[in-house]
Amino acid sequence: MPEDRSSWDAQVVDAPARTGWLHLANRAVAGLTRAELRLGLEAMTDHSGAALVADPSRVSRWESGRQRPPVEVTLGYERLLGLPPGRLLAPVRALARTTGGAPDGVPDEEVEALLDDALTDRPLDGSRWLRLTLALTWHDRFFLRAQDAHAVACRLVSELARSAGAAHHLRLEAALTLLQHPSSQRAVLRAVGSWLTDPDVQLVTPVVALLGSVGGDTDDLVLRLLQGQDARVAEATLPVAAAKLAAGQVGPRHVRALADLATGLVPGVAGRALADLLDLVCHLPRPEFERVVDAQRDGGVRDQLLQIRDSSTLIPDAAHRRLARSLAWRAQWGAEDREPPEPDPMLERLVREALFHVDGRRRELAGRLVGATPYGPVLATHVVALTDDPRELLATRAWELVHVLGHGDAHRSIVARALDEQAPHRSEALLALGLSEVPLTPSESRAVAAVAAQSPDLRYAATLALGLASPGSLPALRGLDALTDRAVAWWQRVGTQVVDRPM
Predict the structure, then answer these.
(1) pLDDT over 90 for what percent of the chain?
(2) Other beta carbons less than 10 A from residue 300's beta carbon
(3) Contact in structure between 424 and 395 (CB atoms under 8 Å)
């Protein structure tokens, strides 16, 4: 890892954009040649009515990652490839933001109707949320009455917390778009604060994650969340602190405090939080990093920290490259018409980063990019198989990617893992059932309710699974304990999972 902070951060944010992932969507959809794609784009216009220019040189730069495509070009790809609205636009905007660009807003003639839907609780799917926020932020400044801005932000934050898959990614992009605009940032931060300060809140991570994209003086808040009594909030804040360190948004005093905190946490953290903690430690400036390493009594832990900081990967190079190559090839085999498929280094790199890169931003972004292509569901099926790998770090990284990609064709495997008393990672399996777009059947719901009744250690995860995927089963949990009663009341108050129905 480079010692110069700006150099390291440039590597962190630049590499995903250089993968040229946009061509993956085109490659995996049969029946559209490069010439047909170019002609189709040139038949479209931008928001000013001018014809798009899509000569071979431009298309090559867009698909190789050397040039960011205009919004209208990305929307053109979606239409020509028959993809749902926003499927490509959301990750393209995430790439632009991560690589230091300011994603453009887009004018929309329906902005008033979209805003009216948002304020009246009429259905608003993820693509329409994104359209609304792009239309609002197309202006340098826009004005909404305080109560309207708060209502829109609260609804969006609530839906963001209760959605999964593409529905979640679209709302995440919509929320980040509003959060980073001066006219709406305060309203979104108030909505985040209202959600997190509810004493009975059950869904924390998706909302806390928004704080990692906020500049300004939020260091004290992040430290308070890390040091607070709520373990779920503290765990969810680790990747936020790491992201702020990577972006150079943490002052010297708070950097020292984070190093002190990490020193005590490294020996005892396991599971999903371990990668986030390693991310934080490896983004510390060299003196603080060395102080954390020197404080570790276990020589194996010291060696692991040094290896990860040096390579930027959570698993040694040769092992993770072989596995990523195999997963990418199997995803191609399942998604492409031709066989055997020609290996694609770009897809392989995204798979490798989604599973093994130490930087949490890189892992999430790479997963979202693959998930936006037809390779995503096929890859998800194979990643589910990795969740029972005996290597703990690999298994927990696989669970993390499952939450991004979904279950593919392996939903029954997740259900079996959640209900098997001997299976490892049952809590993760239960969370995956809730954070999925696949609803639970009545028999599955009864079985999950039985897990909540019989296993206090799994009660939170089982309640979350039912709250999102089978809310009608929640009354069966009443009377188990006071915390569960309050959780059931919270779920019934905020609502069930938000799912975008096919248009």
Answers:
(1) 48
(2) 8
(3) yes
3-state secondary structure of 449: helix
Look-up of token digits 């009663």: 485
Taking only the tens place, the pLDDT of each residue in 484-503 is: 999 999 999 999 899 887 65
Contact 153, 188 (CB under 8 A): yes
Beta-bridged to residue 163, according to DSSP, are 498
The model's pLDDT over 430-445, given as tens digits with 9 standing for 90+, comes to 999 998 878 899 999 9
Instruction: Of 352, 33, 320, give the one whose Cα is nearest residue 344.
Output: 352
Q: What are phi and psi of 88, to 5 degrees?
A: -95, -30
- Taking the C-alpha atoms of residue 68 and residue 63, their distance in angstroms, rounded to an integer, is 9
pLDDT the model gives residue 13? 40
Residue in 163, 201, 161 with CA at minimum distance from that of residue 490: 201
CB contact burial 102-118 (16+ within 10 A = b; e otherwise): ebebbebeebeebbebb
Alpha helices in 43-109 (DSSP H): 56-64, 71-81, 89-98
Q: What six digits make up the tokens of 241?
A: 């602190």
Residue 311: CA atoms inside 13 Å, Cβ hemisphere, count? Answer: 18
pLDDT of 66 reads 78
Listed residue (469, 474, 470, 473) closest to 490, CA to CA: 474
SS3 content of the chain, % helix, strand, coil (to 5): 70, 0, 30
Q: How many angstroms separate the CA atoms of 371 and 349, rounded? A: 14
340-365 burial, b if ≥16 CB within 10 A, otherwise e? ebeebebbbbbbbbbbbbbbbbbbbb
| 390: three-class secondary structure by DSSP | coil
Is residue 112 within 8 A of residue 394, CB to CB? The reply is: no
CA dihedral 191, 192, 197, 202 (to 10 degrees): 110
Coil/strand/helix, residue 69: coil
First to last CA, the chain: 46
Lowest average pLDDT, out of 113-122, 204-213, 221-230, 324-333, goes to 221-230
Those residues whose C-beta lies under 8 Å from the C-beta of residue 213, and which sit 6 or more positions away, are 97, 176, 179, 180, 243
